[in-house]
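REVIEWER CHECKLIST
Item 1: Sequence provided? yes
Item 2: Single chain? yes
Item 3: Sequence as submitted:
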Amino acid sequence: AGDKGAFGKLVEAYQTPVYNLTYRMLGHSEEAEEAAQEVFLRAYTRLDRYDPSFRFSTWILSIASHYCIDVIRKRRLTWLSLDEPMPADTIPYLASSNPQPESSVLDGETQAQVQALLATLEPDYRAAVVLRYWYDMSYDEIAVAMKTTVSAIKSRLFRARRLLAMAAQSA
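Item 4: Structure as written out by the authors:
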């Protein structure tokens, strides 16, 4: 109803899940932060389209996954120069307050491997995997979020798992 304070509470409640999804989809922290901000801006300007019969988390994560798919598609059109240095956020940071540096390194390597495997998937497959395995969404919720059928989601997840297994074996 236009209550900015109430929307601020929604942002506080969902900023972590939205950022996590955008990071898993896009793979770069700065790009994920910008995407998360854009998702909340879009949600705010489209609150009149929210259907209260669905969970708010499904709706906001749907906006996030669609936005990320668009970013990934646009990214394919961007040409990178071989002469330019790599962006700083592609280099993993190992600083940690954890007293066991070995576990920090292993966790970072595992996350980097998972992120690299996710990057091999098409955006629709990647979105389905992230929503299912990181957000524990049901097939029905994913179908609503991605505006498709449950059978299409099952098919995407089956194919994505197979592609991830093949990519992991060849890595």
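Item 5: Key structural point noted by reviewer: The mean pLDDT is 80.
Item 6: Recommendation: ____
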